[in-house]
Amino acid sequence: MDERRREIWIRPLLTWAALCVLLAATCALAYVPMGRANLAVSLAIAAAKAGLVGVVFMRLFENNPLNRLAAAAGPIWIFVMFLLLFSDYATR
Amino acid sequence: MSGAFLKPPFENLERQHVAVSFGMWIFLGSEILLFAGLFAGYGVYRNLCPDGFLAAGRETDIVYGTINTAILMTSSLAIAVAGRAARAGFGKMAWRLLIATIVLGLLFLVLKGFEYREDIEKHLIPGAGFPLAQKGAQIFFTYYWVMTGVHAIHVTCGLIAVGRLAVAGRRNLAWLAGSASEDATALYWHLVDVIWIVLYPLLYLTGRAHG
Q1: DSSP A56
Q2: What's the Cα-to-Cα distance from B172 to each of A31, A60, B5, B179, B182, rounded to whole Å?
Q3: Do A12 and B81 touch (CB under 8 A)?
Q4: Contact A67 B93 (CB under 8 A)
Q5: With b meaning 16 or more CB within 10 Å and e meaning fewer, what string describes B163-194?
Q6: Which terminus of chain A has fewer CB atoms gathered within 10 Å of its CB, N or C?
Q7: Residue A31 and residue B209: Cβ atoms within 8 Å?
Q8: A13/B194 Cβ within 8 A
Q9: For B136-150, what is the mean pLDDT?
C-alpha cells in the first residue's frame, strides 16, 4: 500500500478501532450493576462514539465555521429542551 | 472539467460545495430534533415507569443489536474512506467502498428483519397477549418499534442515496470526486449511524445489570 493510500486509511481506521473498543466496553459495562449510573455510563460512551463519528468521519474540524455552527445548533436546542423537560420531571 | 459539476446559481465549485454541505448540516439538525422528540418521550416514560422499562429492555436481543451497531460503524468507516479516496483521485477504490457501504447497509436491514421476526414470535408487540406485566413495559416496546422503524426508514433512504452515487460514479469516476453529492450523502449516512449509536444503549443495554 503506497503512502497516499495509507494516509487516506489511517485516521478513519484508528477511529473505527476506537469505536469498536467503546462498543465492547459499553456492552460489557451494561452487565455490571451500578444502579442508576448504568444509564449515565452507557449514554456517556454513546456521546463519545457520536463525537468520534462527527469529528473524524464527518470532518467537523476540517469544516468551515458555518457548518460547525449548523452542526452545533441541533445539540444546543436539544440540550435546552431536555433541561426544561427534566427540570420538571426530575424534581416532582 | 469543473463546468460539468457546476450547477446554477453558483459562480464556482467551492461556493457550491459550501452551500451543499451547509444545507445538509441544517437538514441533519432538523433530523436530530425529530429523534430528540422520541428520546424525550422515552426519557419521560422511563422516569415514570423505571421497573417496566428495565424489565422490557432485557427482552430485546442484545446479540442482534450489538452486531448491527458494529455493522453500521463499519459502513460509516467505508463511506468516510470513500470520500477521502475520491478526493485523492482513487476513483475506483472510492466506488468499491460505496458498494461495501451498500452491502453493509443491506446486511443491517436483513439482520433487523430477523430480529423483528424473533420479537414478533415472542409477542413483544404492545396490545393483547403482551408477555410482560410490569407497568410501562408495553410503552418501552412502543418506543422500540417506532424508533427502530423510523431509523430503518432512514437506512433505506440512505441506501437509495448511496446507490445513486454508486450508479452515477460507475459511469464517471471523476464525478465522485468533483460532485458535492458524495459529501452530502456521506454526511447523511453518518447521521444514520450516530442515531443508532444513541438508540443502542436506550433499547439494548437497558436493564441488563438488573434482575
Answers
A1: I
A2: 50, 28, 12, 11, 13
A3: yes
A4: no
A5: bebbeebeeebebbbbbbbbbbbbbbbbbbbb
A6: C
A7: yes
A8: no
A9: 98
Nearest CA in chain B to A10: B81
Does B73 reside within a domain? yes
User: For the complex shown, is ipTM > 0.90?
Assistant: yes
- The answer to whether residue B34 neighbours chain A at the CB level (below 8 Å) is no
For CA atoms A7, A11, A12, A17, the dihedral sign is positive
Task: Decide if pLDDT at B168 tops 80.
Answer: yes
* Residue B98, in any domain of the structure: yes
For chain B, what is the domain count?
A: 1
The distance of Cα B162 from the centroid of its chain, to the nearest Å, equals: 13
* pLDDT category of residue A1 using cuts at 50, 70 and 90: low
CA distance B175 to B156: 23
In a domain, residue B105? The reply is yes
B65: in domain: yes
With an 8 Å Cβ cutoff, is B15 touching chain A? no
CATH number, domain with residue B192: 1.20.120.80
Whether A30 and B84 lie within 8 Å, measured CB to CB: no
Residues of A in contact with B32 (CB under 8 A): 74-75, 78
Tens digit of each residue's pLDDT (9 = 90 or more) over B33-53:
999 999 999 999 999 999 999
What phi and psi, each to the nearest 5 degrees, are found at residue B192? -60, -40
- Using a CB-CB distance cutoff of 8 angstroms, which residues of chain A are in contact with residue B33? 74, 77-78
